[in-house]
């Protein structure tokens, strides 16, 4: 179960808005925090679910962050109390959808503040070069590595070095790609990273099940740096950046090598009817011959 968390803007202490996208001039719909927590816990119990993911992508002010930490702590307390009263054998899982840009930076305490109440951080690593960012440059959505810090490796290193508990950190992978048009010249001889004209109309996200029908994937080229494939059509100046079975296996191998908690899939239904990408992920034995590392052994260099 995934829940979009709520933003605070001039609200009474015990209240939250149900939208984090409303403009300053739009009316807020307010609900007491206790009702919100009771609603989540009741839903989990009634539908026999194991946990909840809280989606609150950009708490900006200190007040927003403090309120979010308070909310998660109170939710954890409620779920633990419900577990005991219902004689549930295993604890409920509380996960948070974590921003790749503002949470794991020097001087930010949000990750550390949430650690006592959260089981997993699902780090947003599936949107690095999305067309909606309007950067005017193409690129893979979820590269393992890159020349800059826009990669799974860079962001997970930052999180692990702050949290010190890699087993509680997951990264998100997409079952989708981007079909780019009006594509021009490569940057620094990297074929996936190209400039585009009309950057606000340059690309569209496509589910794996859909772009297999629209593109000839037999002409795909493997990019060793990002560990992702792409298809470049110079005739019509179009580019497809995407994930395939090989890139999914590479991500699983990376997750194991870094002793991370796991992988989170964005939109499982975007796989094809044969579950091609999901099967690629599950084909990798997570513990061949037993665990390779101690729990929470850090396999990154942290300054």
Would you kindly provide a written description of the structure presented here, covering whatever features stand out?
With 303 residues, this protein is α/β, with parallel strands linked by helices. The protein has a domain at 3-173 and 243-283: TIM Barrel (Alpha-Beta Barrel). Helix content is 27%, strand content 23%. The strands form 4 sheets. Strands 1-4-5-6-7-15 form a 6-stranded parallel sheet, with helices on one face. Strands 11-8-14-13-12 form a 5-stranded antiparallel sheet. It has a two-stranded antiparallel sheet with strand order 2-3. Helix 1 (33-46) crosses helix 2 (62-85) and helix 6 (245-257) packs parallel to helix 7 (276-282). The chain is globular. Residues 4-30 have low confidence and may be disordered. This is GH18 domain-containing protein. Residues 1-288 form the GH18 domain. It holds the Pfam family Glyco_hydro_18. One of its GO terms (molecular function) is chitin binding. InterPro entries: Chitinase_II/V-like_cat, Chitinase_insertion_sf, GH, Glyco_hydro18_cat.
Q: How many β-strand stretches?
A: 15
Number of helices: 7
Name the CATH superfamily assignment of one domain. Glycosidases
Output the CATH class name of one domain. Alpha Beta
Question: What is the N-to-C order of secondary-structure elements (H for helix, E for strand)?
Answer: EEEHEHEHEHEEEEEHEEEHEH
**How much β-strand is present in the residues?**
15-25%
CATH architecture of one domain: Alpha-Beta Barrel
Helical content band:
25-40%
Largest β sheet strand count, sense and barrel closure: 6 strands, parallel
Let me know the average pLDDT: 86
Rg on CA atoms, Å: 21 Å
**Which structural category fits the helices and strands?**
alpha/beta
* 3D shape: globular
CATH topology (level 3) name of one domain = TIM Barrel
Low-confidence stretches: 4-30
Protein name: GH18 domain-containing protein
GO molecular function, one term: chitin binding
